[in-house]
């Protein structure tokens, strides 16, 4: 598994459960919300290595990592600013990394009929 930018990147991935729940959030709380594009993510950055660790734990095996330096165009950190989502709709994303990755792995293995 190539892992680019081994030394510093952090990210914030969106869980499908949070996206679906946010889609059903109450836009009536604001006359503006139905006409805005809002970030949906956890709102908290995590090291990319944390996602790999959780994936390894869920799969019960270690990833074969090819650690590479940051590449041109890489950014050291990125995450969703969910303040507008929370203010306008009252919704706060709540899916943990473990739950989100766990559900994704279960779906992936089932969809592609991969046994462990």
Summarize the biggest pleated sheet: 2 strands, parallel
Between the first and last Cα atoms, what is the distance in angstroms? 18 Å
CATH homologous superfamily heading:
UDP-galactose 4-epimerase, domain 1
Radius of gyration, in Å, reads: 17 Å
Overall pLDDT? 80
Question: What percentage of residues falls in helices of 4 or more residues?
Answer: 25-40%
H-E order: EEHEHEHH
By DSSP (H or I, 4+ residues per run), the number of helices equals: 4
Number of strands: 4
Which stretches are poorly predicted, pLDDT < 50 over at least 5 residues? none
**Main sheet strand line-up:** 1-4
The SS-based structural class is mainly alpha
The 3D shape can be described as globular
Number of structurally distinct domains: 1
CATH architecture: Alpha-Beta Complex
Strand content: 5-15%
CATH class, please? Answer: Alpha Beta
Description:
Helices cover 36% and strands 9% of the residues. The protein is globular. With 116 residues, it is mainly alpha-helical. The chain has a single domain (2-111), classed as UDP-galactose 4-epimerase, domain 1. The protein is built from 4 helices and 4 strands, in the order E-E-H-E-H-E-H-H. 13% of the residues are buried. The longest helix is centred in the last third of the chain and has 15 residues, at 97-111. Helix 2 crosses helix 4. The strands form 2 sheets. A two-stranded parallel ribbon has the order 1-4. A two-stranded antiparallel ribbon has the order 2-3.
């Amino acid at each position: 598994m190539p892992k680019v930018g081994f030394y510093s990147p952090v990210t914030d991935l969106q869980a499908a459960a949070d996206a679906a729940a946010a889609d059903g959030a109450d836009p009536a709380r604001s006359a503006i919300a139905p006409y805005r594009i809002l970030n949906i993510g956890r709102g908290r950055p995590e090291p990319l290595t944390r996602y790999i660790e959780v994936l390894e734990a869920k799969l019960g095996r270690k990833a074969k990592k090819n650690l590479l330096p940051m590449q041109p165009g890489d950014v050291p950190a990125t995450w969703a600013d969910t303040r507008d989502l929370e203010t306008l709709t009252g919704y706060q994303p709540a899916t943990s990394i473990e739950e989100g990755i766990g559900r994704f792995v279960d779906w992936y293995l089932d969809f592609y009929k991969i046994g462990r």
